[in-house]
Design brief:
heterodimer, A: alpha+beta, 2 domains, two-stranded antiparallel ribbon, 6 strands, B: mainly beta, five-stranded antiparallel sheet, 1 helix, 14% helix
Chain lengths: 114, 159
């Protein structure tokens, strides 16, 4: 009986510790505001999931680089360019110059590219 | 010895259930849907959803005008369009606590289609644990592109 109570107590302690830890890990980074859909420039996530830094500096990209707010092609142009197929997801990465050094700008590449 | 093991498992049940519950909380979808354009003869319906590990949005071309002698009804009836007249795109956003702003985690380029409905969907681009939301744009060509964007609520995702 005593051992069972001890085990139950231990289980309750483990659940409490894990629960508090989980809540703390989620709560501290909670968003403070909604994204601004009208912003001209936005931060982008890098390969580590944090805000992308190129040459050690945080970079922003133009909203137009994401594809724009309105489809850029007319239906006829879309049909001509054969872009009716589903395109790949794209992510932001630091642009590299001819020497392989970062230029300080961000570019969008297909997801999965290095 | 065996009895003791069984008791230990039973005693640890609440802890394991608590963990399972924490994981299960994110196994649902965040959806924002509605008409983003309505001029009576042409309506554009946008359905944007962030479902755990999948980002998707749907464009539907609707109209008030009924087929046959059905009654007039606001943005209810299908309004099929030729190929290339429907377009959709989504952007996945992640909260960046280190900059105190939303970051674009990834996007899928404009997808074009025809008919009554176009679906655009892909697995999340994976920017690590954090709060995510989805932004979806739905447009129909009607002499020019008409439509609009919807944003889901945010939720914590592990990937």
């Amino acid at each position: 009986m005593r051992r069972r109570l001890l085990l139950l107590g231990f289980a309750a302690l483990v659940a409490a510790v894990l629960g508090v830890g989980l809540a703390a890990s989620r709560g501290q980074d909670e968003p403070t505001h909604a994204p601004d859909p009208g912003a001209d420039e936005v931060y982008v996530a890098g390969p580590d999931g944090d805000a992308l830094k190129c040459n050690g500096k945080l970079v922003k990209v133009k909203r137009s680089a994401l594809g724009g707010r309105v489809p850029p092609l007319t239906p006829a142009q879309a049909a001509q360019r054969s872009v009716l197929l589903e395109p790949r997801a794209r992510v932001a990465r630091c642009e590299k110059g001819a020497t392989g050094k970062e230029t300080g700008r961000a570019v969008f590449v297909d997801a999965g590219s290095p | 010895m065996r009895k003791r093991s069984v008791r230990a498992v039973l005693a640890l049940g609440p802890a394991l259930a608590s963990l399972a519950g924490a994981g299960g909380a994110q196994a649902h979808s965040l959806i924002n849907a509605g008409n983003v354009y309505d001029n009576g003869s042409q309506c554009v319906y946008n359905w944007t959803a962030q479902a755990h590990s999948y980002n998707s949005m749907l464009v539907r071309s609707l109209t008030n005008s009924p087929p046959f002698h059905f009654p007039l009804a606001n943005c209810t009836y299908s309004n099929a369009k030729p190929s290339g007249y429907l377009a959709g795109r989504w952007e996945s956003w992640k909260w960046g606590p280190n900059v105190g702003a939303w970051l674009v985690c990834g996007t899928q380029g404009w997808n074009y289609g025809g008919g009554v409905e176009l679906q655009v969907g892909r697995s999340t681009t994976g920017c690590g644990g954090g709060y995510y939301l989805l932004h979806g744009g739905a447009f129909v060509y009607n002499g020019g592109w008409v439509g609009g964007w919807l944003t889901t609520d945010y939720e914590w995702l592990w990937s």
